[in-house]
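How it folds
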Amino acid sequence: MNSSSLILQKIAQGNERSFTEAFDYYYVGLCYYADKFIHDSDESRSLVQQVFVDLWMKRHKLVIEQSLKAYLFATVKNYSLDYLKHKLVEKKYLSGQQPLPVTYDRDLIEEAELNARINSAIEELPEKCREIFTLCRFEELRYSEIARRLGISIKTVEMQMGIALKKLRAKLTDSQSIQILFYLFSKNC
């Protein structure tokens, strides 16, 4: 039995310490992940807290067939998409306007799903590639700034970014790869 299965088993049995450890370990990453969908850090934190509340409340009857990490990230994605749908409905209702075209809703959901696939592919990168890629993409640092921060050469940063982009291209479809490349180079990484 792997450690994730053991933690899930302990949580299902009501072990608060295992639950707290899982919360402490995954909370920040899940908030970051949720924020990629809903672009509101307060709401992201609230959403992730709700995921953990629901996990604890449903622990006795919950059947998780994948790892705890996979379950949590999938749940956060689903809650985030539900949140976006709810916000669109709320906005339509409060504005009293005609409903937005279905294509607008679909575009938001497709964008959120694309971001989820990109984030999943990034999570699968080797640790050093992921760190450098994240500094470039999310913190918008230049190669020279990344090299200085990590105490490595600019050539190493370039090489690691090359590895990261190659692995991401292999994981994602052509249109997704183009979007990543466009985003990266439009930010002057």
User: Anything to note?
Assistant: The radius of gyration is 19 Å. The chain has a mean pLDDT of 79. The chain is about 80% helix and 0% strand. The domain at 125-189 is CATH 1.10.10 (Arc Repressor Mutant, subunit A).
